[in-house]
Amino acid sequence: MVDPWFPLTMGIIIIDSGVACTLVWSLRRRQLAVETLIGGTEGPMNYRCFFRELVRQSQRQYRRGGAMNFFIVDAAMFIAVRDLVCDDKRAFLTLYTAGEYYAKQTRLYLSADQLSGFGVNPNGEIISVFSLIPGRGQALTTAAVRCGGTRLDCLGEHLRALYESCGLRVVEILAWAEEYAPEGWDYARYGRPNFYAMTI
């Protein structure tokens, strides 16, 4: 029987004190990573216990102002969490399908508590940055950059300011274009903001 937690532990990303990202791919390297994190183990790996412990560590660490832990997931899991984003934030997200993520070869990351995530394309483009709880924008952007992200596109002054605070700079500004308006865009609430292309 396949361990139901196996896909969740295929690509653990440990962002260690804001310094390094470690991709853990092979079974043995995953075992060593788990042993390091939880102080050693004997016998078969219990991925369910490991994942629960990873979640607890991530929550404790983030509450203390530390770095967040992320892991690579497949598109189905990423989309299931991403689509829980409230309507006022969904308007600023491009809701890619699993097929589109696959075609782009996007690496998709979720935080260990499964409340936030982002994607990074092979060309360095950061996409699908989201969080189900407020206040993680800078942490997510910083993590995306450490995982290979070098550029992104965004809509509106708030996101431009957020990404500038993380070290990105505007390289192109495009005025609002009606033909590219997100579906269901609330003009009364959001107006017609500029579109920004940004890079490191």
Describe this structure in words.
The structure is a single chain. This protein is an alpha+beta fold and 200 residues long. Helix content is 36%, strand content 24%. The chain has helices at 27-38, 47-63, 75-82, 87-90, 98-104, 137-146, 157-165, 187-190; strands at 11-16, 20-24, 70-73, 107-111, 116-120, 126-131, 151-155, 169-174, 195-199. The strands form 2 sheets. It has a 6-stranded antiparallel beta sheet. Strands 7-9-8 form a 3-stranded antiparallel beta sheet, with helices on one face. A hairpin with a 5-residue loop joins strand 5 and strand 6 (126-131).
E-strand count: 9
Q: What is the fold-level CATH name, i.e. the topology of the largest domain? A: Aminopeptidase
C-alpha Rg (nearest Å) = 18 Å
CATH architecture of the largest domain: 3-Layer(aba) Sandwich
Content-based structural category? alpha+beta
Q: Total number of helical segments?
A: 8
Distance between the termini: 45 Å
Residue share in helix: 25-40%
